[in-house]
Amino acid sequence: MCIAYAANCAGFAPFPTHNRAQREARWTSHKIRLQQWASRPPGIGGGGLLMSSNNSPQSAEQVYSWIARHLPEGPRPQIVRPVNYVRIIVVTTTILGLITFLSVASRYILPVIQNRNLWAAISLITILLFTSGHMFNHIRKVPYVSGDGKGGINYFAGGFSNQFGLETQIVAAMCQSNATHAWKTADSIIC
After folding, report:
1. Domain range for residue 40?
2. pLDDT in tens, 3-26
3. Are 4 and 29 in contact (CB under 8 A)?
4. Does pTM surpass 0.85?
5. Where would you tag: which of 5, 34, 58, 77 has the fewest CB atoms within 10 A of its CB?
6. DSSP assignment, residue 84?
C-alpha cells in the first residue's frame, strides 16, 4: 500500500478513460499488482522493493521509470504535472515591470542611446583594443605585466608572438592619440 500511495503522490494520473468505473478498476488492479510484487520475499524475481534515494529528492520521472521497470507489462498511468502558478506570476510581473521601467525611463535613456559621440567613442575604443591584440590576450591568457628580474616591471614582451596585457592598452592609446592628432590636423586644413 505504501508504494501505491507513493506512486499516487509522485504525480501519476489515473488512466485516461471516460468511464469512471473503468478508470477506478484499472487503477485498483494496478495498485494490487504493485502490492503483490512488492510483498514477494526478496530474491530472484524481485520482492522486498526499496528505491534508493541517494540522499537526494526523487523527481516524478525517476519514480515513474522505477515503477515501470518493476511492474509487469500492461497499461501504465501517465505523469501529469500541475500548473506552476508561481512561475506564471513571476514572469508576468517581470515583463510588466520591464515595460513600466522602459516607458518611464525612456525619456532619459533615448538621448543617451541616440548620442552619436557616445557611439563613436565606443566604436573607436573597441576597434583600437581589438586591433592592438585584446582578443590575443584573452585567448592566450597572457599576464598583464611581468617582472624584469631586477625589481622592475616589463611593459613590453620581447620576442615574436608575445605580448602583455598592458602592452595592448599602451598601443591602443598611442593609436588613438595619433588618430586624434591626425583628425585635428585634417580639420584645421579643411577649415
Report:
1. 2-70
2. 444 444 444 444 455 677 777 777
3. no
4. no
5. 5
6. -
